[in-house]
Specification:
This is DUF3267 domain-containing protein. Pfam families: DUF3267. Keywords: Membrane, Transmembrane, Transmembrane helix. By secondary structure, the chain is of the alpha+beta class. The chain has one domain. It is about 55% helix and about 20% strand. The longest helix is centred in the first third of the chain and has 26 residues. A 4-stranded antiparallel sheet has the order 1-6-5-4. A two-stranded antiparallel ribbon has the order 2-3.
């Protein structure tokens, strides 16, 4: 038996414009830090060839991000629902939804796995191809901005009790905890 310990809806808590503004600041900060760091390490000139591949990568980041959310939830694949809706008639917004409560550990892993996998690959690629590091640092910064909402949810979930379960609903996430049995069953 589970009861709701807390409901979380980061989008309502912070609002669209604040999240967008924080995400934009995060993107600029990450790009500035990474680009300057790589320029200090490598003195190789930058090339602007393969811009088409960069553009394709830019558009693939978001769908890949959603796919990597599902990897830690592979054991719960029958409970996962993918939906796509469009904003402004052309911007696809994808949602990954789990229909039943799942353990907090798996949910946190699902939240942070896109950041770890995609940014890890992009940063490794920037060291392999230093002449195109600017492309990879732009993609890394962009993806980090996409991950901001995941970070905000993960921060809230880290503070939840051990052994909690997470359930999604239309208003965000509910943190569910097991009901402790009382010593007096009739009360």
């Amino acid at each position: 038996m589970l009861h709701c310990w807390k409901s979380i809806n980061v989008k309502k808590q912070y609002g669209f414009y604040r999240i967008f503004f924080l995400s934009a600041i995060l993107v600029l900060t990450v790009f500035s830090f990474l680009h300057v760091s790589i320029q200090l390490i490598s003195d190789q000139p930058m090339y602007d060839q393969y811009f088409l591949w960069f553009a394709i990568g830019f558009f693939l980041i978001y769908p890949l991000h959603k796919v990597f959310h599902t990897l830690p939830l592979a054991g719960f694949i029958s409970l996962i629902q993918l939906k796509t809706r469009f904003h402004f008639f052309c911007v696809p917004i994808m949602s990954v939804r789990v229909n039943k409560p799942i353990p907090k550990v798996f949910f946190i892993m699902a939240l942070v796995s896109p950041f770890l996998i995609i940014n890890g690959v992009l940063l490794y690629a920037s060291t392999l191809f230093p002449g195109y590091a600017h492309y990879f640092t732009i993609l890394t910064a962009y993806h980090t901005g996409i991950c901001l909402v995941d970070f905000l949810y993960a921060r809230s979930l880290f503070r939840s009790p051990k052994g909690a379960f997470i359930e999604e609903d239309d208003d965000g996430y509910e943190i569910l905890v097991p009901v402790k049995e009382t010593q007096y069953p009739g009360i």
